[in-house]
Amino acid sequence: MAISYPIPKWDRPAPTTHELNWAELTELPLDLFDTPDGKAELVKRVKHALEVEDLGFWSVTNTGFSEEEIEHQFAIGQAFYKLPLEERKSNSIDAANGGYLGYRAAYERTINGTDVLDNMELLNIPKYTKNFSETPRHEIIKAHEAEISDFHRRCWYDVARKLFVLFALALELEENYFVDRHDYEKVSQDHLRYMMYHPRSVEDDEKCNNLWSWAHTDYGSLTLLFSQTVSGLQVKFADGTYRDIRPKKGSIVVNVADTLSFMTKGYLRSTIHRVTRPPPDQAHIHRIGVLYGCRPNDDVPVVVAPSPLLQRLGYLTPEDIAAASNEKDAVTAGEYVAARVKAVHAGATYGNAPGTKFKHGNLEVLENFGEVNSGSKASI
Ligand SMILES: O=C(O)CCC(=O)C(=O)O
Ligand SMILES: [Fe+2]
């Protein structure tokens, strides 16, 4: 007989009472998308963040997801992390081969340069399409397939797709330029993620500079992070300061990741962010997160988009234009993401020394954006 896997209600933790150095992100109310004037306003706001604030982060609101639906996703995450470890581990990621779909346990790696263990576990759920119909999924996920698959598809169709259109319009490209390269129905490493950070002792956190996730950029093209009240997520602003993301019920914090940045020569900025130990009134909480990670379709060549805007702004070199017309020699998005997952997740430690570079073919990023010049890991 099938086990039923009830989902107990999730109680949203109270926001911190500490006054943090809050980031003010440009808001994109997605209900504006459906009228020409509204769409033009959204394009303007997309460009404002990129060109004026030098930031690839936005706060996306009015997405069509109800508060109840979002909280139900956090509740599923909560229920998943209450399952016995053996059951959670039943479909683990294949990091040695660059695989990032499935479960990754906490406490299996040390934080580089310390004896402290990594405190974050995650479950990346693949798309609900025919290509993934044979992919093994946890029983609890299968038991709630109706609402999880609906949520998964809407993250792409109702949110990511619209943002890809806005990006294409901002770059003066054909409106479906990025949509076509991220087609939900084709194979990609897109995933809906339930993640969980376990509280750590003050002593252990001190050894890791109070970081739960090192300063990094994301690997794919776009990350949709459902707003949560447990603080810790910080974005690096152009002036070098890290500022805290303010909780905002129902909103989605969206950031550009590496492959979109490569395709636009950094105009769509893959922005550095990190997760710190939460403020004192929240540091004891098990921090559950829900996010949707978009990647281009696996077979998409990572070449620079032929954007008139980028051309005018002088972002495109003759080599970029030549490479773009020779797509068959380009690294594909699938290859890039797999190589990066392997580099970050297959080792026995988490986090390289600040300044370490990751390179695959012609594509290169820093692995850890801590300051390099003080010569100490305490400089992150
Ligand atoms: O947990 C968070 O708030 C951010 C997570 C994150 O940056 C990531 O998983 O890449
Ligand atoms: Fe991230």
Could you walk me through the main structural features you see in this protein, from its secondary elements to its overall organization?
Keywords: Iron, Metal-binding, Oxidoreductase. 29% of the residues lie in helices and 19% in strands. Mean pLDDT is 92; it is low at 371-380. The strands form four sheets. It has an eight-stranded mixed β-sheet. A four-stranded antiparallel β-sheet has the order 7-12-9-10, with no helix packed on it. Strands 4-14 form a two-stranded parallel sheet. The termini are far apart. By secondary structure, the protein is an alpha+beta fold. It is globular, with a radius of gyration of 20 Å. A hairpin with a 2-residue loop joins strand 15 (357-360) and strand 16. Residues 216, 218, 273 line the site of fe (ii) ion (FE2).
Descriptive keywords:
380 residues, alpha+beta, Jelly Rolls, 8-stranded mixed sheet, binds 2-oxoglutaric acid, binds fe (ii) ion, Fe2OG dioxygenase domain-containing protein
